[in-house]
């Protein structure tokens, strides 16, 4: 005998109630609801009081492991936390000269950048556009080659070697090294005993794989990408420097921004110092955070065969290694990229040393190149 309409309604109601716990489990497993949200690492948003009433600070950096401080500090919210309600507006660059242009145009206020563009920008502006306010990283640069075409450093003549951009830090290092080996190259055209090809870091691995390049003098993680693609490290740049230390990344600020918003700059430096300490104390977690930021910026994380060696090859430090900046500028002169580099006044480490003192850490020396 068919069930009445009322009976059918009662059975459907009972079934719906019974299904609620199962539905809750399914939704939770899909990541919905409060438990799912707790599993997601979300960097804190700008909240609280704005420092000096400033709404935002524009920060530039590269999607490179040599810029680990910026990658980790932004991903983990360690820099934003120090800024309170002053929001970070980030911008990713591929090479230093373009970042200097952005700083000069006011498109960024603070940036993580290499030494050569810093010196070049400071010199061209007659010391008016920027200050180096902290260190960030040392090392992390290698000459990677096709081992079938280049078996030793004596095999470079007639080969095609890439750098990220004319006048960037790796470009200067390669040109100087070739000069010391007695190999002549026209700085601007890249033609000579060795053909120097300026190419975006993102494009170099594909060019290397297609054999249109014989090698590249590049920062991490590009160097490790080339190795994973069959390349061989012919020279780790650390071997060319005393104690294996040389500045590869420092922090710069617009002089105008430094003068108008020193409290904001100090907050960013507090975040930078805390980030560097966290990276060195938690290398595995920091590596994962850097990779997560690279994925957010580029759409793809680095595989273990790339991120692991790249991470080990970079040393994180608050010290800008000022004495090595002088040597790097001499290399730029020899390469014909600078005629008379201006270094006096390029550093202002006063806020960094204030932050370090508050943390019970020793002051850092500017090698006599500080602003008065």
Q: What would your notes on this structure say?
A:
It is a single chain. With 372 residues, this protein is of the alpha/beta class. The protein is built from 15 helices and eleven strands. It has helices spanning 5-29, 33-38, 68-75, 78-83, 96-105, 115-124, 169-180, 204-209, 222-228, 255-260, 262-281, 283-298, 304-312, 322-334, 350-358, and strands at residues 56-62, 87-93, 110-113, 130-139, 141-145, 160-163, 195-198, 215-219, 232-236, 247-254, 314-316. The longest helix is centred in the first third of the chain and has 25 residues, at 5-29. Mean pLDDT is 89; it is low at 1-40.
The percent range for strand residues is: 15-25%
**Strands, total number:** 11
Secondary-structure class: alpha/beta
Rg from alpha-carbon coordinates: 25 Å
Note the main sheet. 6 strands, mixed
Average pLDDT, rounded to a whole number, is 89
- Order the strands across the largest sheet as they lie in space: 2-1-3-10-4-11
Helix content, binned percent = 40-55%
Principal-axis shape equals globular
Instruction: Report the order of strands and helices.
Output: HHEHHEHEHEEEHEHEHEEHHHHEHH
**Terminal CA distance:** 100 Å
Low-confidence stretches: 1-40
Secondary structure tally, helices: 15
């Amino acid at each position: 005998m068919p069930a009445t309409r009322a009976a059918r309604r009662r059975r459907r109601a009972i079934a719906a109630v019974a299904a609620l716990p199962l539905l809750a489990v399914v939704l939770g497993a899909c990541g919905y609801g409060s438990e799912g949200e707790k599993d997601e690492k979300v960097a804190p948003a700008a909240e609280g009081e704005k420092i000096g009433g400033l709404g935002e600070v524009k920060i530039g950096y590269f999607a490179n492991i040599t810029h680990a401080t910026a990658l980790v500090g932004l991903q983990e919210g360690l820099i934003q936390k120090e800024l309170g309600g002053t929001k970070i507006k980030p911008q990713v660059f591929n090479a230093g000269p373009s970042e200097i242009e952005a700083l000069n145009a006011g498109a960024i206020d603070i940036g993580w950048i290499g030494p050569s563009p810093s010196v070049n920008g400071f010199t061209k502006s007659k010391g008016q556009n920027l200050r180096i306010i902290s260190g960030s990283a040392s090392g992390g640069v290698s000459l990677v080659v096709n081992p079938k075409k280049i078996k030793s450093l004596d095999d470079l003549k007639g080969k095609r070697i890439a750098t990220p951009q004319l006048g960037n830090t790796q470009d200067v290092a390669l040109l100087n090294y070739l000069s010391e080996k007695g190999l002549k190259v026209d700085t601007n055209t890249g033609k000579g005993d060795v053909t120097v090809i300026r190419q975006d870091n993102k494009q170099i691995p594909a060019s290397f794989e297609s054999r249109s390049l014989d090698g590249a003098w590049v920062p991490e993680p590009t160097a490790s990408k080339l190795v994973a693609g069959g390349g061989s490290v012919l020279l780790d740049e650390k071997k060319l420097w005393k104690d294996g230390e040389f500045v590869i990344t420092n922090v710069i600020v617009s002089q105008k921004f430094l003068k108008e918003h020193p409290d904001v700059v100090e907050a960013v430096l507090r975040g930078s110092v805390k980030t560097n300490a966290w990276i060195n104390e938690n290398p595995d977690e920091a590596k994962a955070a850097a990779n997560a930021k690279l994925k957010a910026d580029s759409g793809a994380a680095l595989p273990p065969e790339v991120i692991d060696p790249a991470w080990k090859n970079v040393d994180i430090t608050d010290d800008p290694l000022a004495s090595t900046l002088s040597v790097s500028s001499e290399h730029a002169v020899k390469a014909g990229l600078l005629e008379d580099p201006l270094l006096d006044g390029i550093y202002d480490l006063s806020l960094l040393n204030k932050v370090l003192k508050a943390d019970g850490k020793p002051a850092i020396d500017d090698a006599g190149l500080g602003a008065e």
